[in-house]
UniProtKB/TrEMBL annotation:
<dbReference type="InterPro" id="IPR013762">
    <property type="entry name" value="Integrase-like_cat_sf"/>
</dbReference>
<keyword id="KW-0233">DNA recombination</keyword>
<dbReference type="InterPro" id="IPR002104">
    <property type="entry name" value="Integrase_catalytic"/>
</dbReference>
<dbReference type="InterPro" id="IPR011010">
    <property type="entry name" value="DNA_brk_join_enz"/>
</dbReference>
<dbReference type="GO" id="GO:0003677">
    <property type="term" value="F:DNA binding"/>
</dbReference>
<protein>
    <recommendedName>
        <fullName>Tyr recombinase domain-containing protein</fullName>
    </recommendedName>
</protein>
<dbReference type="GO" id="GO:0015074">
    <property type="term" value="P:DNA integration"/>
</dbReference>
<dbReference type="InterPro" id="IPR050090">
    <property type="entry name" value="Tyrosine_recombinase_XerCD"/>
</dbReference>
<dbReference type="GO" id="GO:0006310">
    <property type="term" value="P:DNA recombination"/>
</dbReference>
<dbReference type="Pfam" id="PF00589">
    <property type="entry name" value="Phage_integrase"/>
</dbReference>
<keyword id="KW-0238">DNA-binding</keyword>
<feature type="domain" description="Tyr recombinase">
    <location>
        <begin position="1"/>
        <end position="214"/>
    </location>
</feature>
Length: 218
């Protein structure tokens, strides 16, 4: 995962205040990229340092034309009547959560908002693809373009991207507070609907495992 030192190097490699804010905000807030680009200024309480995060998730499901039951989108045959489902329905689930943000990141956000010419009502008026491009560009400049990271949620390997800051926050959080209260706090902060998703982060970072391995043979 990305270490705090590597994240600092990414921030330093960013081209401007906006890009530095994007990287710092993604790490300190631990939010999804979609949540960052949809965050409205009215949902930031500059005084208390609390932010209302809106998460909108699409839930595509197939509907069986024979019995009318909804089934998973990857299901080939309806488990209720055996007919092949054909119609795909997309439902949207909207959730909100309130998170805290550190003062330095808030001040950086305020400087960026006050210094820009246009006001769209959004903190970062960019697309998800543009944000990911900014992160990857900073990674190349910082010499981290080839770094391979493990996603604890899926077990898959990835290069540096915008979502990896969320993983970095989760692992750093659990290094400091790995007890049940800390994990429940992380669940709320990241906006995981199921606690089992948060539990996937409950594994030691590779660097820590290496330290323990060395201790075993000392």
């Amino acid at each position: 995962y990305l270490t705090p030192k590597e994240i600092d190097s990414l921030i330093e490699a960013a081209d401007n205040l906006r890009d530095r804010l994007i990287i710092r905000f993604l790490f300190r807030a631990g939010c999804r990229v979609s949540e960052l680009v949809s965050l409205r200024l009215e949902n930031i309480d500059w005084g208390s340092g609390m932010i209302m995060i809106r998460h909108l998730k699409s839930l595509p499901r197939k509907k069986c034309p024979s019995c009318g039951k909804s089934v998973g989108r990857r299901v080939q045959f309806c488990p209720y009547c055996g007919s092949p489902p054909s119609k795909v329905e997309v439902k949207e689930e909207e959730r909100f959560r309130l998170i805290a943000l550190d003062q330095e990141t808030l001040e950086m956000a305020r400087r960026y908002v006050d210094g820009r010419s246009a006001d769209s009502g959004l903190l970062i008026p960019l697309t998800r693809q543009m944000v990911d491009h900014i992160v990857k560009q900073a990674a190349r400049k910082a010499g981290l373009g080839g770094k391979i990271l493990l996603n604890p949620e899926t077990g898959r390997m990835h290069q540096v991207s915008a979502h990896r800051f969320r993983d970095a926050l989760a692992l750093r959080w659990l290094e400091k507070r790995g007890d049940i209260e800390g994990m429940k706090g992380l669940q709320e902060h990241l906006g995981h609907k199921d606690f089992s998703t948060t539990m996937r982060y409950e594994k030691l970072a590779p660097g820590k495992v290496k330290e323990i391995y060395k201790e075993v043979f000392e």
